[in-house]
Amino acid sequence: MSAIDDGSIDKWRIKRLIKGLEAARGSGTSMISLIVPAKQQITQISTQLTDELGTASNIKSRVNRQSVQAAIISAQQRLRLYSRTPPNGLVIYCGTVITEDGKEKLINIDFEPFKPINTKLYLCDSRFHVEPLAELLEDGSKFGFIIIDGKGCLYGLLSGNTRSILHHFPVELPKKHGRGGQS
Description:
By secondary structure, the chain is an alpha+beta fold. The chain has four helices and seven strands, in the order αβααβββαβββ. The protein has helices at 3-23, 42-56, 62-80, 131-136, and strands at 31-36, 90-98, 104-111, 121-125, 142-149, 152-159, 162-170. Helix 2 (42-56) packs antiparallel against helix 3 (62-80).
């Protein structure tokens, strides 16, 4: 298979996943959408989830509190599978979903997106937030840019919300200040 076919398969899988996650509904705020960009450290996210677990203990509704705590613990367990953030970032969806026959089911999904993701997202809601994943499926047109200033030159590419620096080199220019004083 070629790289083009692999990209098409990845897009198809993400589209199918988005449809499934958009249709999923839960009770209360028991569904966690967690998107970690590549430059974010896993330990920071883990600390944030630990703080949220403490905050979740203050929820008055017993059923909602238990489902939120179960989702946060599940997200923490998924996060422990990674020693560091993957190169394209990390996407985790955890939560208690109400099925068509009215039963509750715990869903855990974690994966590395096929393109780099720059969005950081942590939301507890009655639905999964898949908008950043939908942005990955948008047209991947690439635009080149050149930035020149008095200190150097930079060449880069912009594709969607991802930018990459191709080359940067500094320049030493003489100062404009002339020599000598007043005459």
